[in-house]
Structure formats: structure tokens, C-alpha cells
């Protein structure tokens, strides 16, 4: 089994949308039109490196992705990054794909001089705990009713 990590591309849209639907965390799943707008925004602004999309391929088939945002915060020195999403296809879990995506994100951050990497999860805290992440607070979310 070969796992390859690369940057995301527009050609990945269909399979990434299917993975994003698996990621659903309590709200309704993202529709394809909204997903396409979000993916276009991530890819179009790639040169600014604020949103970093990595794709994991297992034996040539897309099996997961991660989305990282890099920014400066007012309370922390230097660049910070937040792992917004990390998704591995349900059928591909347990083969090290999540580990490889985490390694790619950490390597990217260290190369950019990012001093802090954070992640929020409601699912598998142990995935982060055994990779050196420490719980430092609680994550809150409010779904806003628009219109």
C-alpha cells in the first residue's frame, strides 16, 4: 500500500465533496454548490497560503484530505495554524493516512515558521493526544439562522 500526500486540485472536487459529507458534525451536510464555492476560494487564494489543502492518495485513489488555516493572532507571537478539517474515508481508516496528513501539516507549518498548531475535535481526541497535542480549552459552536 502506497500513501502519497499532495496539494489539492480542482480535479479532486467530486471525491473531496464525498469526504466532506462524511465529516459532517451535527449540521446538515454541505451541498455540492456550496462546497464548490468553498473549494474555489481555498484553491484560488493558494498563493497567499492562508488555506492549505492536502490530499492523501492510497494506491492512486483519494482517501482523505486536511484543511489548515495559517494566520496571525493578536494574543500569540508569530504565525499560528489551525487544523480545520482532517478526514479519512471510512473504508481507508487504520492504514496510517491520518498520520501522514498530520505529518504533512506539521512539516508545512515548521517550514513556514508557524509557532503554534491547534485543532478542534468532537470525535477522536485520542488521535490528537498521541500526536503531542494537549487539550487547552473547550470548543464552542453556534449555528446562526440566516434570513
Describe this structure in words.
It is built from four helices and five strands; from the N terminus they run βααβββαβα. It has 147 residues and is an alpha+beta fold. The protein has one domain: 3-Layer(aba) Sandwich (Aminopeptidase). Strands 1-2-3-4-5 form a five-stranded mixed β-sheet. The chain starts with a strand and ends in an 18-residue tail after the last helix.
Topology (SSEs and partners):
Blueprint: E1 3-7, H1 13-22, H2 32-44, E2 51-58, E3 61-72, E4 79-88, H3 97-112, E5 116-119, H4 125-129
Strand residue percentage? 25-35%
- The unreliable regions are none
What's the alpha carbon Rg, rounded to whole Å? Answer: 15 Å
Predict the CATH topology.
Aminopeptidase
Strand order of the largest sheet: 1-2-3-4-5
Q: N-to-C terminal Cα separation, in Å?
A: 48 Å
| The CATH superfamily title | Gcn5-related N-acetyltransferase (GNAT)
Write down the secondary-structure element order: EHHEEEHEH
- Mean pLDDT, to the nearest integer, reads 85
In total, the number of domains comes to 1
Strand element count: 5
CATH architecture: 3-Layer(aba) Sandwich
CATH class: Alpha Beta
Largest sheet: 5 strands, mixed
Helix tally?
A: 4
Helix content bin: 25-40%
Amino acid at each position: 500500500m502506497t500513501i502519497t500526500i499532495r496539494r489539492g486540485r480542482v480535479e479532486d472536487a467530486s471525491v473531496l465533496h464525498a469526504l466532506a459529507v462524511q465529516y459532517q458534525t451535527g449540521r446538515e451536510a454541505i451541498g455540492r454548490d456550496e462546497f464548490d464555492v468553498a473549494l474555489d476560494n481555498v484553491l484560488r487564494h493558494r498563493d497567499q497560503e492562508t488555506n492549505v489543502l492536502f490530499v492523501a492518495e492510497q494506491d492512486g485513489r483519494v482517501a482523505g484530505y486536511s484543511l489548515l488555516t495559517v494566520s496571525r493572532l493578536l494574543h500569540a507571537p508569530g504565525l499560528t495554524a489551525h487544523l480545520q478539517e482532517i478526514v479519512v474515508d471510512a473504508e481507508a481508516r487504520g492504514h496510517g493516512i491520518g498520520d501522514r496528513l498530520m505529518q504533512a501539516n506539521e512539516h508545512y507549518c515548521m517550514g513556514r515558521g508557524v509557532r503554534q498548531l491547534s485543532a478542534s475535535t468532537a470525535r477522536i481526541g485520542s488521535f490528537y493526544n498521541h500526536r503531542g497535542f494537549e487539550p487547552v480549552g473547550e470548543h464552542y459552536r453556534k449555528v446562526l439562522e440566516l434570513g
